[in-house]
Amino acid sequence: MNNKAIEERLSKQAKDALKARIRYERRFERELEKEIQRYREETPEFFRKSDREHKPRTILAEGDSWVRYSIGFAIPWHLPKIDDRNHVLNIASPGDTASEMLSGSNAAKLGRRIKMGPSRNRKFDVIFFSGGGNDLLGDGRFATFLRNYEDGMSPSELVNQSTLDAAFRCLSVHYINLIRLRDENSPNTLIYFNAYDFAPPTGKPACGFIGPWMRPHLEATGAPDRMFGEVVNYFLGQYASLLRQFIEHEGERLKVLDTQGTLNEREWSNEIHPTTAGFRKLAKVVQKQLEEDFP
């Protein structure tokens, strides 16, 4: 195959991938509109039933694909099915970074939604927030946290801790903005931060064209395959540790969900997304926290 033919083939692949991504994004825009409309229609009946039978729990869900994944089957989708006391408004968009959600016009929009609450004269009990994964792993950023492998290196030594610490400091600016939006508009609302889980660096993309996010960068370090899972586990464990340190410093009504270590390898759909069964299992972790805070 000559160079021109190769270029034409690659150009077609790029165009096909772009078209697929556009269809994918439009699909989720339509889904989000339907979700908000459904929520508005169901809210009056939900409160009439809940006030009569048992105290409701109202949840505003914002975040990445762990909040809204394929046809909605992410963590918040399962919560009302696990317990009908849970009423969720899911305003997430897959692929979003924390920096996109918590700055500029998006932050202002989120602030208004928090202020409005689930209905007139009510405030959300919980803001379930999942953001940071795309900031750290998206667009090849995972490579910036890895060192080149040298004989005898441990998995933790392959991670550039100083770079991760610096990236988390940048993330924390956006987390602080989320807390500010809560404090200004609904100070008694709890914030649950998602800590994700130990994702397997299999190299498998999502939907056939998004990703992979980790394995190619791990391979580029020259490290042996047997280390890959341990490196990722250390990296994500450090993220959760930094997140816990952050909320301990920032005040009350903030919690990190204890999700890490929940899933087994069969409960992952690809490198960074669980299966529907996996998301349901993670939703049970959220449910346990809800029951502790709102018995």
Which range best describes the helical content: under 10%, 10-25%, 25-40%, 40-55%, 55-70% or over 70%? 40-55%
Total strands:
5
Number of domains: 1
State the name of the first-level CATH class.
Alpha Beta
Distance between the termini: 67 Å
* Outline type: globular
Characterize the main sheet.
5 strands, parallel
Low-confidence stretches: none
Instruction: Report the β-strand fraction as a percent range.
Output: 5-15%
- CATH homologous group name: SGNH hydrolase
Which CATH architecture would you pick? Answer: 3-Layer(aba) Sandwich
**What sequence of helices (H) and strands (E) makes up the elements?**
HEHEHHEHHHEHHEH
Give the structural class.
alpha/beta
Give the C-alpha Rg. 20 Å
Mean pLDDT across all residues, rounded? 88
CATH topology: Rossmann fold
Strand order of the largest sheet: 2-1-3-4-5
| Helical run tally | 10
Written description of the protein model:
The protein is α/β, with parallel strands linked by helices. It has one domain (3-293): SGNH hydrolase (Rossmann fold). Helix content is 53%, strand content 8%. It is built from ten helices and five strands, in the order αβαβααβαααβααβα. It has a five-stranded parallel sheet. Helix 2 crosses helix 10 and helix 7 (161-185) packs parallel to helix 9 (228-250). The mean pLDDT is 88.
Summarize this structure as a short list of keywords or feature phrases.
295 residues, alpha/beta, Rossmann fold
